Amino acid sequence: MKPRTRNIIVVIIVVIVVLAGIGTYFELQHGTTSTCGPNQTTWICIDQAEIPDSLDPDVTFSTPGWAAVQQVYQGLVNYNGSSVTSFSGVLATTNGTESYNPGTGFSTYTFDLRPGVVFSNGDPYNAYVQWYSLYRSLLLAQGPQFILEQNFYSTNFDPSNPLSYYSNLTNEIVPANATLVSDLNSWNFFTPSASEIALMELPNQSFQVINSETIALNLGYGYLGTNYTYLLASISAPNSYAVDPAWIDANGGIVEGQPNVYASDHTLGTGPYVLNGYNGVGGGGYTLTPNPKYWGASGYATQPWNNNLAPANTSVEIIFQDTIDVTINDLKSGHVQGASFAYVGPSTIADLQGLSNVVVDALPIIYGATSGSWWIFLNQSVYPFNNLSVREAITHAINYQQIIADAFGGYATQWVGPVPPSYPYNNNVTAQEPYYSYDPTLAQQEIQNSPCKNAGCKGTVINYMYLNVGADWAETAQFLEEDLAAINITINPVGVSLDELYEEQGIDSDGACVSSTTANGGPFYMGQEFYTSDYISPDDWTQNDFVSTGSANECMAGFNSGALSSYNATYDDWVYNAAGDANPADLTSYYTNMTQVLYENYSEIWLTVPTSFAVYTTNLQGYVFNPMASAEPFAIGFNTQWLS
Length: 644
Fold this sequence. Notes:
Elements: E1 14-17, H1 23-29, E2 43-48, H2 63-72, E3 77-79, E4 87-89, E5 97-101, E6 106-112, H3 127-140, H4 145-149, H5 173-186, H6 194-200, E7 207-211, E8 214-218, H7 231-234, H8 245-250, H9 261-264, E9 273-279, E10 285-290, H10 297-302, E11 315-320, H11 324-333, E12 338-340, H12 346-353, E13 358-362, H13 365-371, E14 373-378, H14 388-397, H15 400-407, E15 412-413, H16 440-448, E16 461-467, H17 471-485, E17 490-496, H18 498-504, E18 526-531, H19 538-545, H20 551-557, H21 568-579, H22 584-599, E19 604-606, E20 609-610, E21 613-617, E22 620-621, E23 642-643
Parallel strand pairs: 1-21, 2-11, 2-12, 16-17, 16-18
Antiparallel strand pairs: 1-12, 3-4, 5-6, 6-8, 7-8, 9-10, 10-11, 13-21, 14-18, 14-19, 15-20, 22-23
Helix pairs in contact: 3-5, 14-16, 15-17, 19-21, 21-22
C-alpha cells in the first residue's frame, strides 16, 4: 500500500486577508496592470508559500495542487458548506442513491447528473465523460490512486472474456489495462457509438453507465474488499473530478502509469474559474478569472445553500512566495490582501493580532487535526527501543505541557491516537485512555527496569529527526533533549526539511527503509512524525499509522514488528473491517482496540495538535470555512468570496 501522506505542512495554519496590493508585480509577471492595489475591491491577491506538484486532478497530491484544481475542476459531490460529515451534489444532482447490488454482494451508488454542464471550452459533460475520467484516474496510477483503489479496479471490456474488477494492477490485468487505454484514447465520449455505450453499460465493472445522464459506482472490489463507509468523502477528492476527454486526447492522451505533461501545468474544467498564466517557480504564480461559460448559476439560484455551485465573484491572483519574512512584510505593509503560509509560529500570530484591521480567530481542534497531528516514533525493532520499559520511560519523561506552553505559546493541545480529535470514533472525548503524562518518577522506575538502567544507554547517541521549519519544533527538540537526559537517554536533534521527512518514510532502491540509512543525517530510529488528512475518516489515519504497511509504521515505529508481528493479520483486519463497517458498536470496538494496542506499546508517542487560525480582514465577504479545504487554508473555493 502506498504511503498515505499528502504534502501538507501545517504547524499553525493561518488564513490572512489584509488590505493592500501589488500591481507592479502583476504587470511584470502576468502582463496585467492595476490588478491589485491598496483598498481596491476588484481582485483578491494571495501570497502562497508552496508551489503545486501538478495541476492534473488525477496526479496532484499536495495542498497547493489541490487548492488550484478545486477552483477549476469539479466532481460528483463535495463537502456541504462547513460540514465534514455531510455532502452536496455538484456535477450530480444529489449525493446519490445507495442500493444493494446482488451481482457483487456490496453497495452501488447511483448518481443522476446535472443537465447542461459544460467545460470552459464549451465541450459537454455527461455520464460517458465521468466514466472516462474515473478510469483515467486509475490508469495513471499516481499518488492519490489509492483513494479510488479502496473500492474500484478497472476491468477487461471484452464481454466474451471479462475479468473480475477485483483483479489487482499486475499480471492478468495488464492486457485489460491496455484494452482500456486504447478505448479511452480512441472513443468519442460526447457521442459514443452504440457498441461503445454497450461496453460502458456492462454491469461487471467498477464504474457503470446507466444512461447519458446517470452513472453507477459499484463498491466492494478495491483492496478493502468491502463496502466503504466514507465513499462520499473519498470521491470529493480531486482524482474523482471530471476532465475533458477531447482536450486530454489532443494533448498527449493517456499513457498507463504516466502523468500527462501538458495537463500538469494547464487546466480545463467545468468549475467556476479558468486558470491562466501558470508559472510554477518561486516568484511565479497564476491567475484565476471567472469562467465565462460557467454552467452553475441556475443551479445555485435554486440551491443558494450549495456553495459548490456558486459562480465566481471576483478574480484571484496567486503569488508563489516561500519566504515568510517577505510575506509578513507584504501583509504588514499592505502589498497583498491575503497569504497562505506553510508555517506560522506564535510570534507571527502575536504580530498579526496587533494589526487593527485584522481578525485572528483560533479555530476548533478539527481544523488543526486535519492539517497535522504530530507524534514521536520510536522504532521498536532497534536497540534500545526494542525494550518496552525504555519506550515507556521515554513517554513519561516528556514534559508535554512545557512544550505546548513554551514552544507553541499555548497554541496546541495533546491528543490520543491513532484517530485524531473530533474525528469519528476518536478516543479524545470519552478519554478511555488518558493523555500520556509527564511523570519523572515513573520514568526513572521504568528506565531502571530496562537495559538502560544505571545510565547504561547514556553513551549511545540517538539521532532524533525533527522538522526544521520554525522555532516551535526546534524548541520542542531542545526540550526533548533535556527531558531525556534526565533518564540518561542521549539524543542528537537533526533538523530536516519536509521533503526529507517524506523521503525518510520510504524505501530506497535497495529495499531498505531510508530511515535506517545515513540519508539526511540518519539513521533515524526516533523522530517526529505526522499525518494530514486526505479527507475526514478514521481509517484515513489508521491506514497510515496502525496498519502493518502504513508509512508511519513500516519504516518508522514498526510497532507490530518483533513480538507483535504475529498479530499483523489481526491488526490489519481491524483496520480494513472498520473501514467497511457501518455498525457503531463494531466501530467503537475496532477503534478502541487499536487505540489500546498503540497506547500500551509506546512506539508512537502522541504529542500535539497545533492550533489552526483564521486571520482575515473584515472586508472579506463570503468566506466558507471547511477543515478539508485547500485554497486559502480552510476555504475550499474562492468562488464565494469578494471584497467589500
